[in-house]
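Students often ask why we bother predicting the structure of a whole assembly rather than each chain alone. The short answer is interfaces. A chain on its own may look different once its partners are present, and contacts between molecules only exist in the joint model. In this exercise we take two input lines together and write out one structure for the complete complex. Read the inputs first and try to guess which parts will touch.
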Amino acid sequence: MHGARLNGFALLVTLGDRAQASRAAGGALASGAQQAGALRHPERAAAWLRREVMRRIGPVRPLAASDEVERRAALGLIGCRDAAVDGLAALSRVERGAYVAHAVEGFSGIDVEMICQRSAAATRHTLARARDRYLAASMRETAASDPADGPLRRRVRDAASHVMAVADGTAGGTGA
Amino acid sequence: MNDDLHDRCAAWLLDGARGGPARDVALHATLCPSCTACIAALDLLAEIDVGAAGLPAPRPVGRPLRALSGARVAGGAVAVVLLAATGGVSLAQVLAPRPLGAPPASPGSRPPAQEVLGGVGGEAGASTTPGNATPTASPTATAAPSAAVPDRSALPPTPVPPPRTTQTTSPPPAATPVTTPPPAASVPPSPTPSATLPPSAEPTATPTSSSEQSVEPTPEPTPEPTPSS
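Now the answer. The structure tokens for the assembled complex follow.
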């Protein structure tokens, strides 16, 4: 399970380059197995492994015509739609790693610092910049297509319909 | 007002969309295309399931493997270089004999191989089948080359065939001519030369059967070559 998640993380950072992702994730797992005895903070193990993945991922090839379809398909297998791919492709490698760890995997700030090997301030800056760039690139796609009905959108819609219901006096059916 | 709602919506989203949105912000977000797109873009990330990726390929434990492959590559490169070198050498050897066959056409220009054969070369090239004439030729080497060339053009004379027969019998090694010259030099002191040398002094032609016969018509050759060879 952990190996698969690690591989998924690597796949996102490499923009669907299966070979490179597999090498990086496999290497990180092997390194983790070798150094398991020296692990002092098990709660940081997941972040440490992702740091190892990041260290093993070299320059990521941009999506090119030659293999773009294949790489998008690889990312599609883990639920990464084209708009998200475009948004992630707009980031640098480090930004992508930080943003995926934070926004997709839900790592805390201190873990992202370890993954990126940057200070707290630099990590915050990296995350903010990554989010802006991701949104700018991804929104172009989502605005043109039918927006996904995800959890965030459902929450907003539910909140808005509640407001409407209150305004109509039908909220919660307790108006009577 | 609208801009304020827009900014508040963006701030809520960028803050991680923790908790529920404010009512007015929620209403704005459902109607604002920009905010809707922003929400949808963030929702795309929620759809990603990193655990759905398969396990990475098992990683080979040893690095020696990598080193081995490196050694293989190096070995292959060395082999290629050696092949190229030997190929070049053999090619040069293959190309060298060509001029040897050519001399008949261009007598003036001798390939280095023939010049290495020195005086012998002149004769060997002149007498269609080189070889055995060398012993007798070596003494006259200095004079022979120049004379040998024209002789070939004047080959027609009958004496040519007899030497062939005698020579072809002896040719065992075509390379012998190369080795023989030294003996030729050592021959003079040895027994038979004493007999052969005098004749070479009298008529320069006698020793080299075909070529010198053509120069000096007086053909005594038959007696000479036989003893020498």
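Check your guess against this: The two ends of chain B are 124 Å apart (CA to CA).
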